[in-house]
Automatic annotation (TrEMBL):
Residues 1-30 are annotated as: Disordered. One of its GO terms (cellular component) is plasma membrane. It comes from Kitasatospora camelliae. It is a multi-pass membrane protein. The chain crosses the membrane at residues 35-58, 100-121, 133-154, 295-316. Residues 96-311 form the ABC transmembrane type-1 domain. This is Sugar ABC transporter permease. Pfam families: BPD_transp_1 (PF00528). SUPFAM superfamilies: MetI-like. Belongs to the binding-protein-dependent transport system permease family.
Length: 323
């Protein structure tokens, strides 16, 4: 009886291994792998939508209605009437002007002093770690505590500042009633709190500048001032733009310091240092007009967007001219 030899054996090879079966759901792991990054970032978008985007859009919706604090569940459609009332309110324009003035008085000296302090700390000073930590102490101090202390320092009758002025033969200044004096007082608090914070940001940017640039400048005969002007400042330009934008946003939202400086939402007897933040607080929680307060909030938001875009455009234009 003839036997049939298996093909694999008749060809002189060993038995062929069994062909493994194709995986049934090979596409499923790939799809989950593509979706995994979205799952990692999903919590951020959920929190942003719940606590950032929704309040922003709901505030815009409220700004188009008449809403009173006593009857917050009742809304009467007004359209843009809340915004037109703001344009006709002289106190709104005064608050806008005060916000700009206090912002300039606090931001410009603050950033200049922060730049100088960072330049000093960039050198190898004895105890520089202690000075760096001390820079953050004003930033870590409570806004309420710092403002109350400065309000005592700027007191008219028993304040330390007026005592020093009187000791050198100058007349005392009413730091809470005069327009420029009160704005300088509020700006001083802001400058004291944020100078050290910005100085550390500038210091981090300076340490990222290659040391070879300073060595080349020194070999070309540049002194420290020339190195600071032609090496440090160009290297810090992105950092400077960042601090200007953040300081501008902070100045536009200024609230705690002017509120606690005298303890009134009016910003002084004649609203001489009332900022937009105080004006918003006054409309919503002193006059109970939540719709108008929402309109002020959206005006502040649009103002911040315009200022940020303006700073970005100036920085981009400066970069193009340098190239």
């Amino acid at each position: 009886m003839a036997t049939t030899t298996p093909p694999a054996l008749s060809a002189g090879r060993g038995p062929e291994p069994p062909v493994p079966a194709a995986p049934a759901a090979k596409g499923r792991p790939r799809r989950s792998g593509r979706l995994a990054p979205y799952g990692f970032v999903a919590p951020f978008f959920v929190l942003f939508a719940a606590f950032g985007l929704f309040p922003l859009l709901y505030t815009a919706y409220v700004s188009l209605h008449r809403v009173e604090l006593q009857t917050a569940d009742r809304m009467d459609w007004l359209g843009l009437q809340n915004y037109t009332r703001l344009l006709d309110d002289p106190f709104f324009w005064k608050a806008l002007g005060n916000t700009f003035t206090i912002g300039v008085l606090s931001t410009v000296p603050q950033l200049l002093m922060a730049l100088g302090l960072a330049h000093l700390l960039n050198y190898r000073l004895r105890g520089r770690t202690f000075f760096r930590v001390a820079m953050l102490l004003p930033y870590a101090t409570s806004v309420a505590a710092a403002t109350l202390v400065f309000a005592q320092l700027f007191g008219r009758d028993y304040g330390l500042i007026n005592w020093v002025l009187s000791s050198v033969g100058l007349h005392p200044v009413d730091w809470q009633a005069e327009t420029w004096a009160s704005q300088v007082g509020v700006s001083t608090i802001v400058t004291w709190r944020w100078t050290g914070y910005n100085a550390l940001i500038y210091l981090a940017g300076m340490q990222a500048i290659p040391g070879e640039l300073y060595e080349s400048a020194a070999m070309d005969g540049a002194n420290r001032w020339q190195q600071f002007r032609h090496v440090t400042i160009p290297g810090l330009r992105p950092t400077i733009v960042f601090t200007v934008v953040v300081s501008t946003i902070g100045a536009t939202q200024l609230f705690g310091e002017p509120l606690l400086y005298e303890g009134s939402s009016r910003g002084g007897i004649s609203h001489q240092y009332q900022t937009l933040g105080l004006y918003l607080y006054e409309q919503g929680w002193s006059f109970f007009h939540l719709g108008r307060a929402a309109a002020v909030a959206w005006v502040m938001f649009l103002l911040i967007v315009v200022l940020a875009l303006l700073n970005a455009a100036i920085a981009a234009r400066r970069n193009r001219t340098d190239r």
